[in-house]
């Protein structure tokens, strides 16, 4: 079969909020993805807050980025519907929290494969970014022994 | 999963730094991306389907009505979401947002002194059917000025956010209109490699046009990879 060319990416621009993150930005439109992956009422013992900022070349915090996080749950399952208070995709713009933070309520996922460190996948969209970029967030818990044993150095 | 078929094709997508679009210079990563085989296990994703959308979500001519009809030229936009083998991607979420007929966004930050339309919100969403087809009704968006360079105007466009079967197929893009003279002057559009640019221009379609009601524009979207039935295991 003939291989079709990929539809090119374009920037999300500065005005995504009322379409993609409306509730966060106080528009009267339902949000499909929110900063809350873990429902605190259902499960608070595993809760983490994942906060951060996006900086440009000059070190200025970006106030119009949209961050998506995609992660499996603690059993390693991608939840397309809420399951025990957890859903696998979160989304937040950096324009509503003081200091231009993004701030997700979630849990530390199971590792993708045994022996790998757990990580949350992150996508960055913003004005000035013509194609979105992917990164991963790891966690700094120290494991002295076992499958997720932290790497220590000797010198 | 055949990973080579699933890579982002940088002959199709704009670079992260395109100096004609000034803010890419200080916002686009300057170091090369590090290649990894997969970001998530095959089969993980996506999340939104039919149950995500409300009845008026696909009709931007109605979902913002306060006291009358929105102003401007009614259009209907339809197309298929396909993988690179041309197979339809069903039950995939598309979110759209756009300026009104005067070129003004509802967004609080838009300070362009063109009028807001009390009856037009400008955001909607729809989900592809079993044939990968989506369709929504809206008002043709107006051009608007921006500060990139002197006398800079964005061509008429509708913003699209598309999911597809997994994290790799995620796409945010803009749909343009045929014959728009501003395209030749728009650094955002021109940042796309030349051979791929026209994929972003919808085509006028008389068959899609609804008599006495709305002009039809066709816009197909091709997501990377060859996954054909993302939801078959559910
Ligand atoms: Fe725009």
Provide an overview of this structure.
- The complex is a heterodimer of chains A (155) and B (234).
- Chain A has 155 residues and is an all-beta fold.
- Chain A has a single domain (11-155), classed as Protocatechuate 3,4-Dioxygenase, subunit A (Sandwich), CATH 2.60.130.
- Chain A is built from 1 helix and 6 strands, in the order H-E-E-E-E-E-E.
- Chain A has a 4-stranded antiparallel beta sheet, with no helix packed on it.
- The longest helix of chain A has 4 residues, at 17-20.
- The radius of gyration of chain A is 18 Å and the shape is globular.
- Chain B is mainly β and 234 residues long.
- Chain B has one domain (3-222): Aromatic compound dioxygenase (Protocatechuate 3,4-Dioxygenase, subunit A, Sandwich), CATH 2.60.130.10.
- Chain B has 4 helices and 11 strands; from the N terminus they run H-H-E-E-E-E-E-E-E-E-H-H-E-E-E.
- Chain B has helices spanning 3-6, 23-27, 187-190, 194-197; strands at 74-82, 93-98, 123-127, 133-139, 144-146, 152-154, 157-162, 171-176, 203-204, 215-218, 221-222.
- In chain B, the strands form 3 sheets. In chain B, strands 1, 4, 9, 10 and 11 form a 5-stranded mixed beta sheet that branches.
- In chain B, strand 7 and strand 8 form a beta hairpin.
- Residues 229-234 of chain B have low confidence and may be disordered.
- Classes of the chains: A mainly beta (155), B mainly beta (234).
Quickly list its features.
heterodimer; A: 155 residues; mainly beta; Protocatechuate 3,4-Dioxygenase, subunit A; four-stranded antiparallel sheet; 6 strands; globular; B: 234 residues; five-stranded mixed sheet; 4 helices; binds fe (ii) ion
